[in-house]
Amino acid sequence: MTSAQVDTENVPEEGYERGLGSRQVQMIAIGGAIGVGLFMGAGANIAKAGPSIILMYALAGVVIFFIMRALGELLLYRPVSGSFAEYAREFLGPFFGFVTGWTYWLMWVVTGMAELTAAAIYIHFWFPEIPQWVSALVFLVVLFGVNLISVKIFGEVEFWFSMIKVTAIIGMIVIGLGVLTLGFSDAGDTAAVSNLWSHDGFFPNGIGSSLMTLQGVMFAYLAVELVGVTAGESENPEKTLPKAINTLPWRIIVFYVGALLVILSVVKWTEFSAGESPFVHAFGKIGIPLAAGIVNFVVLTAALSSCNSGMYSTGRMLRDLAANSEAPQAFGKLNARKTPAVGITVSVALMGIGVVLNYVVPEKAFLYVTSVATAAGIWTWMMILISHIRYRAAVDAGRLRASSFPAPGGALFSWVALLFLIGVTCMIAYDKDARVCLYVAAGWAVALGIGWAVLKSRNPQITERRDPEFEQVG
User: Fold this and answer.
1) Rounded distance between C-alpha atoms, residue 316 and residue 147, angstroms
2) Are the beta carbons of 294 and 171 closer than 8 angstroms?
3) 355 closest CA partner among 127, 139, 38
4) How does the average pLDDT of the chain come out, rounded?
5) Average pLDDT over residues 15-26
């Protein structure tokens, strides 16, 4: 066997239906880079950093690419559905696999809350009389039904959600460029590329304020790693996964850097504020009939898309934990449609806390849940990077075979990305609004420590045991 082949002998058949085709995996990867962090969170980030937010998204995007190439190398070494937890378990030890699996699950539960919050806010655009919590509850129930049917239905729904997002952003960029070059619409007289620097400069609030937005910017990139979770249900992971990862730089350039360049040229940055989508505001400013409503529909689908992905990934991660005796065995069962229904159901029930937050503190719900999700996401990315560093050391020492999709720069860029994430964590600690997530993280760490101690007391062999039901060799 050459290094260009996936080691299928060591890849377990996990019982899932390989129902995600190349078309769906590619669009899931594209859609994962376009979510509520861009459509909703960018408003607050623009207000803090001004035009320099473009540079922050670009900088974070480079780091995300390093992370994804590290993950890609691991995926082609051993493509499994519980990828992040599995690699942490293999290269760092069972405890880190346990922590990573549960933390990634938490990230998606909390992200689901954020997406439900954002979707409810978008519904206010048309129906301000409907309470946020009512809209959030309706969306929760509908997406729950989609995820219980089959992975093919999930993939198809996610494909069209992503298609709407991609088409809309490209359309927004084209219209914005038309305003800049032809000067039509209500914004034509003031639209100019000079808006990027003519209102107190490119860094209007200083470089420090711009850097402090990085924790919010990183939230926008949560879900790009979802490609790794699809590995166990992709029809041809050896071909689809590298292609999905290698197109990431173009997605970042077009959907983040390109879109923000156009928007901040058409409308000066001082007009944007937290709690409002900059895309909706920009097209309302342009004055195109129904444009703001159309854009609001697009950002609504973006929120629902991410929530849909969250339900998908939580069920798979809980099943991986159950496979390693690190979660109740009920989470490991598949229903007749080969979906982990119990894990999805429990996760959705906890996402319902987001509905409660929208009832109790609607004005703070989005900030609270995004900060917690960012902290959980940073841990997951760190585990990917450290696992990759350990994997490359094993390959260099001749203990493991080389992957067919090696990351450029080897372990060096993984070290760079790891240091960057540590810096972002320090910024979170400095920000009084985002700091709440570290308190939650401390409580979560205590809970995981207690959980691990209980598991070891009940099953001293947990460091070696793996249930054969979950590891059927094809």
Assistant:
1) 11
2) no
3) 139
4) 81
5) 60
User: Which of 154-158, 242-246, 274-278, 449-453 ranks highest by mean pLDDT?
Assistant: 449-453
Q: How far apart are CA 252 and CA 407, in angstroms?
A: 18
Q: Which residues of 243-278 are buried (b: 16+ CB within 10 A; e: fewer)?
A: ebbeebeebbebbbebbbbbbbbbbbbebbebebbb
pLDDT digits (tens, 9 = 90+) for 402-443: 999 999 988 999 999 999 999 998 888 887 777 777 888 888
Confidence of residue 8 (pLDDT cuts 50, 70, 90): very low
Length, in residues, of the chain: 474
Q: What's the confidence (pLDDT) of residue 473?
A: 31
Phi and psi torsions of 212, nearest 5°: -70, -15
Mean pLDDT of 262-280: 85
pLDDT confidence of residue 227: 72
Band of the pLDDT at 16, cuts 50, 70, 90? low
Closest CA to 77 of 231, 234, 259: 231
Residue with tokens 């400013």: 285
The arithmetic mean of pLDDT across residues 243-266, rounded, is 86
Placement of tokens 């203990």 in the chain: 399
Q: What is the predicted pLDDT for the residue at 1?
A: 37
Place of tokens 């249930």: 467
Sign of CA dihedral 457, 346, 437, 70: positive
Q: N- to C-terminal Cα distance for the chain?
A: 17
- Two tokens, residue 102: 């549960």
